[in-house]
Structure formats: structure tokens, C-alpha cells
Amino acid sequence: MKLATPALHTLTLSLALLGCTLAIPASAQDRLAALAGNNGSVMLHAPDGEALASLNPDRALVPASLLKIPLAQVALTALGEDFRFETHIYGNDNGDLLIRGLGDPFLVSEEIGRITDILAERGLQQVRRLVIDDSAFEPNPDLPLERNSSQPYAARTSALAVNFNTVNLAWTAQGRLISGEPQTPLTPLARELGAQLSPGDAQRINLGEDPVAGLQQAAQLFRLFFEESGITVTDAAFYREALTDEWTQLYQHPSSRSLRDNLDGMLRYSNNFTANQIFLTLGAQYNGYPATVESAKLALQQQLAVLYGDNFGRDPQSLLMLEGSGLSREQRSTAIGMMHILEVFKPYADLLPEANGVLRKSGTLTGVYNFAGYIRGSDGLYPFVILTNQTVNNRAEILRVLRSLVK
In this predicted model, what pLDDT tens digit does every residue of 232-289 receive, in sequence order? Predict the structure, then answer.
């Protein structure tokens, strides 16, 4: 199917919207205008593409995490729904083992246990040094982060990160530190972090901006799981090295989760860590390792243009997209551009979280309050876009007005 160019698409939409304000009650249009203000735009389409409501449709605004929607479709198209992230295991003549991460965003405790059990079944009994390799991603990728945030969804990206680069801590009624999840043993690093906190409610915290902390956690957790699988690691020191010719691949582990599974979690929880992992992996799949922000941006923008039309990804009047999480305030989208994305994304609408008959993705930064998705109607899905870059959060009320217009 040939995609319409942005210019032609914009013209088509603009013509359709000329009489749009007359198609809905004047009271609803006035209410939308009052709620959206000067820095807001709103659109609603019927299942057949008919424009039902429009306000400032060509105003370029900060989309925030709404950009995870086109990121998801680019990933599905470029990599395939059943794409599996991998973790590679190498050995050398000295009895050392190297774990090379390739960006799996869901390298969780259960997955680590599968890896160590498989290696044990293949006859591995003892490891001298356990070596961690995160060189598949460029050092310190220049990606926007929520600075000083301890939230798990804001964890630092890494080619080798376990449990989303976070630790889950809890305390007994007597105040003793324990793991916040039964499948994950407490590592020495987790104990150090817990000792700095006061006993209280269980909490998952990210490991901060220092890449070494996350890699230490990975090494310690792998070591504990090796021991549970009956494999002895004789040297407990931390080693971080890049793969060289001295190493021989012993095992190539595919994740038990498909790309679609990862995208479901990314969209449901607006996980910036997962978005960044997928974004960098796109660059590596097109341009090789190590993955870089620049190669990922080029791959992303190329695929956005293929999916949605020329200049999508590079033009703020449709979509300017520079990274995957949506944290960059340099990025822009118009309601027209986002509506076109939603029309193309419709086969994957069920990936969006649903609340009260609305499939929606939120986009939130300070002074940015957005929604985009689909309202379920008796005759199908009604795509909608709400972009508001203002101090007051009116998006829920705007959505309520739009829902009143749906059959």
C-alpha cells in the first residue's frame, strides 16, 4: 500500500476539517477550546476516518511519551513481532566466563536462572573469573534521563542490565532487610543500598546514573544464580571487559519474551528504560554494534518515513522524533501527524493500556499533559489526540468531552 505524503495528507485533513466545528455541538467545541487553551490541540476521528472534532490541528507541541506509539510500530515493523533479544556466553582457556549483553530489557531473575541452569545441564561445573561485557552499547549514550529520579521506569540504559537496572527491597515486620521478590536473592550491592534506607514499605529503586553499579549488580546476581545451579565461581571480584578473540562462544540465549511482549509492558507502564533499550537496538540491527544514539536516530527516522510518509521523524509539522522515550523536549508533533500515526497503528491498538473503554497512551512532563489512543464505539475504534503544553492538566476532562461525541 502506498502511503500518502505528509503534504498531501495534511491537505486532505485540512479540507475535511473546514466544516468540522459545525459537525459537533457548539457547546462541545467551546468547551474543548476553553480546556485546551492557546497551547493545546485536539482531534477525534470516526472509525471510517471522518474528522469529528478538531482544534489547532497543525500546532507543533511536545508529545512526551506519546512517541512510544510510533517507536513500537517501528520496532514491530523493522524487527518483527517475535524478535528475541539475546545474551551471549563465552569461555576462554583459563576457565573464565564472559557474559555479553545485547540490550535485553527483560533480563530478569527468572531469565538469569534459565541461563545458568542450561549451562549446568551442558556440563559447566566451575568458573574462575566471571566477566561482564556491556560494550554492545556505546559508553554513556547521550539520552535524556529523569535526573535524580529513583523511579524504576527511569533507570539508566545498558547493554547488560538485570531486573531493569533496579533492585527490589523490602523489610520484615522486625525491620530486617529482605528481597522484595522471592525469585531474586539479595546481592551484596542490594544490601549496601538497603543499609542506607530506613525500613518501611517495599520499594523498587533504580541503580542511578553510574554504569558500574548496574554492572556490579548483574555480576553479583549471575554469581548467585550460578551457585544455585551448582556451578562454582571461585573468584568473587568484579571484572568488566569487552569481547576479544580469546573468547569462544559457548551459548547464545534467546529471551523467553518476544518483542511484542516487551512492547506491551513498555506501553502499559510507559517504561523509559525499555524504550531506550529498544531504540538503541534498532540502531544496532541496522548499522551493527556497538549501538550508538546517532545510528539509532537515523534508523528510527528512516523507518518512520517508510511507515507514515516522507519527513515523518524529521519535520515538527508532522513528527520530529530524536529518541524513543519521549523525554526530550526538543521533539515535536502536531495533532494531524499523531492522528495519521494512530490510523496506521490501529492493527496494534490492543497494545495500549485500556481504561473504561478507552485505549490510551499518556504523555506527561512538567507542563505537558497529553493523551492519544482510541475510544471504543459501537461501530469501531475512534482515534483521538490530545496535546496540551500548559500548566493546568485538563486532558481527562477533554477526553470526557470527546467520549460524549462517540456513538
Answer: 999 999 999 999 999 999 999 999 999 999 999 999 999 999 999 999 999 999 999 9
CATH code for the domain in which residue 271 is found: 3.40.710.10
The domain containing residue 151 runs over which residues? 86-257
Looking at the structure, do residues 110 and 153 belong to the same domain, yes or no? yes
Last-in-domain residue among 214, 236, 257: 257
247/119 same-domain check: yes
Q: Tens of pLDDT along 317-371?
A: 999 999 999 999 999 999 999 999 999 999 999 999 999 999 999 999 999 999 9
**Residues 287 and 143 reside in one and the same domain:** no
Number of domains in the chain: 2
Please give, one letter per residue, the 3-state secondary structure of the chain: CCCCCHHHHHHHHHHHHCCHHHHCCHHHHHHHHHHHCCCEEEEEECCCCCEEEEECCCCCECCHHHHHHHHHHHHHHHHCCCCCCEEEEEECCCCCEEEEECCCCCCCHHHHHHHHHHHHHCCCCEECCEEEECCCECCCCCCCCCCCCCCHHHCCCCCCCCHHHEEEEEECCCCCEEECCCCCCCCHHHHHHHHCCCCCCCEEEECCCCHHHHHHHHHHHHHHHHHHCCCEECCCCCEECCCCCCCEEEEEEECCCCHHHHHHHHHHHCCHHHHHHHHHHHHHHHHCCCECHHHHHHHHHHHHHHHHCCCCEEECCCEECCCCCCCCCCCEECHHHHHHHHHHHHHHHHHCCEECCEEEEEEEECCEEEEEEEEEECCEEEEEEEEECCCCCCHHHHHHHHHCCCC
On whether the pTM is more than 0.85, the answer is yes
Tell which of 257, 289, 305 closes a domain: 257
